């Protein structure tokens, strides 16, 4: 089938981009670096201006966001990743707040145009199908809506199943570039993270369907699930931490009501082991983000247990997960998609887990959120809250009860100050006084 494809150079391919165009980049590990570099060369040569770039977060370089390209490229991302955080906070790039489930809708509903989609795919099979590999997310929608699709054919892109397949007839221009995908490696959990993982693991029942993000806390949770049975995966992403549980038969999807026996995700970020794991693996379905993150789809599986994290939580249970005050740090992402979906699942649990304090000893639990902080998960969506000091269930609790429970899992160094703040906030009622005295 490769013989029927005409390959061009990356520099030739990006000539289709015009000033004023909106360009979508495939995300996370699958950002098409050779096309990005070629596009930036056109920008340096003065051939382009006012080109809008859209993507979820990407791994690897993001040169189009460099301040030197002001007026040439405008990054309006759907999530603020580490590689564009500083330029976004300084105003050289911008962020579109959107639920991860609805990123695809921005294209399909015509809210954002997509003139050019630049993606990476695996080599075509004998039937002429390529796969998006590690990132389906909103990229499938971009391909469907784009005026022109440029695909990098890369032997390192795994051939994943689910919604990942495209026929070569859906692609206008092909570039060949065999570069290993960006890998992400995570540090071992520290003692605080292990304690949080332990409390979370105690809430996970046999037969649960899991969603969790990336980093040390999810890895700490997964490391403590070796004695569980019949766990499933329906998530927006997974990484290396799930692999030992799959190999041990702990994760088998046997209790799922939909996609039974399959691990469902929309993008991946991890080591080469994860990318190898999904290659030609019918047990993994890489799906459109409009499916994976739809709360009403999520809720169809029983015992959905969603574990997410935060930057700050106030005494009423409001969760800030996208900003440090007025400075955007990440994004809305899929947190509310899964917190709400899990809460609607039969026997489901929505869990918000975070360390009680920052590395500098500042409490992450506050009387009120820092001025300018964004509420990602509302107080009405909060159920289980976990720190290294325990797990408390806030669902159905009054404001005063919530404050007492939240303070009970705050860092001991900060509990007295938080108690005082709560008293000043709620102290006109006898209830809070009684609760604090009864602790």
Which helices and strands occur, and which strands form pairs?
Elements: H1 10-13, E1 22-25, H2 33-44, E2 51-54, E3 73-77, H3 85-89, E4 94-95, H4 103-108, E5 116-121, E6 129-131, H5 139-145, E7 148-153, E8 161-162, E9 165-167, E10 173-176, H6 191-203, E11 209-212, H7 216-222, E12 232-233, E13 237-238, H8 243-247, E14 263-265, E15 267-268, H9 272-278, E16 284-286, H10 289-292, H11 295-298, E17 304-308, E18 312-314, E19 319-320, E20 323-324, E21 327-328, H12 335-344, E22 349-353, E23 365-366, E24 384-387, E25 390-393, H13 399-408, H14 412-426, H15 430-438
Parallel strand pairs: 1-2, 1-5, 2-3, 3-4, 5-7, 7-10, 8-16, 11-12, 11-17, 13-15, 14-16, 17-22, 18-23, 22-24
Antiparallel strand pairs: 6-9, 18-19, 20-21, 24-25
Helix pairs in contact: 6-7, 13-14
Describe it.
- The longest helix is centred in the last third of the chain and has 15 residues, at 412-426.
- Helix 2 links the parallel strand 1 and strand 2.
- The chain starts with 9 loop residues before the first helix and ends with a helix.
- It has helices at residues 10-13, 33-44, 85-89, 103-108, 139-145, 191-203, 216-222, 243-247, 272-278, 289-292, 295-298, 335-344, 399-408, 412-426, 430-438; strands at residues 22-25, 51-54, 73-77, 94-95, 116-121, 129-131, 148-153, 161-162, 165-167, 173-176, 209-212, 232-233, 237-238, 263-265, 267-268, 284-286, 304-308, 312-314, 319-320, 323-324, 327-328, 349-353, 365-366, 384-387, 390-393.
- Helix content is 27%, strand content 19%.
- It is α/β, with parallel strands linked by helices and 439 residues long.
- It has 2 domains: 2-176, 3-Layer(aba) Sandwich (Glutaconate Coenzyme A-transferase); 191-435, Acetyl-CoA hydrolase/transferase C-terminal domain (Glutaconate Coenzyme A-transferase, 3-Layer(aba) Sandwich), CATH 3.40.1080.
């Amino acid at each position: 089938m490769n013989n029927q494809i005409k390959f061009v150079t990356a520099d030739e391919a990006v000539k289709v981009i015009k000033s004023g165009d909106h360009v979508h980049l495939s995300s996370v590990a699958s950002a098409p670096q050779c096309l990005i570099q070629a596009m930036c060369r056109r920008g340096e040569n003065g051939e382009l201006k006012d080109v809008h770039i859209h993507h979820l977060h990407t791994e690897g370089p993001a040169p189009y966001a460099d301040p030197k390209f002001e007026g040439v490229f405008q990054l309006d991302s759907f999530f603020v990743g580490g590689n564009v955080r500083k330029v976004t906070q300084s105003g050289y790039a911008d962020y579109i707040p959107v639920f991860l489930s609805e990123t695809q809708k921005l294209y399909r509903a015509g809210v954002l145009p997509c003139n050019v989609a630049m993606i990476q795919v695996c080599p075509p099979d004998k039937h002429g199908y390529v796969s998006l590999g590690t990132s389906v997310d909103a990229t499938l929608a971009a391909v469907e809506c784009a005026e022109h699709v440029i695909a990098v054919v890369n032997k390192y892109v795994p051939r994943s199943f689910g919604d990942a397949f495209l026929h070569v007839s859906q692609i206008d221009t092909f570039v060949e570039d065999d570069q290993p995908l960006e890998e992400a490696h995570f540090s071992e959990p520290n003692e605080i993270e292990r304690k949080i993982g332990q409390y979370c693991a105690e809430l996970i029942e046999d037969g649960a369907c899991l969603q969790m993000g990336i980093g040390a806390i999810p890895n700490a949770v997964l490391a403590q699930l070796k004695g569980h049975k019949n766990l499933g995966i329906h998530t927006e992403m997974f990484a290396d931490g799930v692999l030992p549980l799959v190999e041990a038969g702990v994760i088998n999807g046997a209790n799922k009501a939909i996609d039974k026996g399959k691990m469902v995700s929309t993008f991946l970020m991890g080591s080469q082991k994860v990318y190898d794991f999904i290659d030609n693996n019918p047990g993994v379905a890489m799906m459109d983000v409009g499916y994976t993150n739809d709360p009403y789809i999520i809720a169809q599986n029983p015992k959905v247990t969603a574990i997410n994290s935060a930057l700050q939580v106030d005494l009423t249970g409001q969760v800030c997960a996208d900003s440090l005050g007025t400075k955007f740090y990440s994004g809305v992402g899929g947190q509310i998609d899964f917190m709400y979906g899990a809460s609607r699942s039969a026997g489901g649990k929505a869990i918000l887990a975070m360390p009680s304090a920052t590395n500098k000893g500042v409490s992450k639990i506050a009387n009120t959120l820092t001025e300018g902080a964004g509420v990602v998960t509302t107080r009405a969506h909060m159920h289980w809250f976990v720190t290294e000091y325990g797990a408390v269930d806030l669902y159905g609790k009054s404001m005063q009860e919530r404050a007492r429970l939240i303070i009970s899992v705050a860092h001991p160094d900060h509990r007295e100050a938080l108690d005082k703040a709560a008293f000043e906030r709620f102290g006109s009622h006898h209830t809070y006084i009684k609760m604090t005295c009864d602790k």
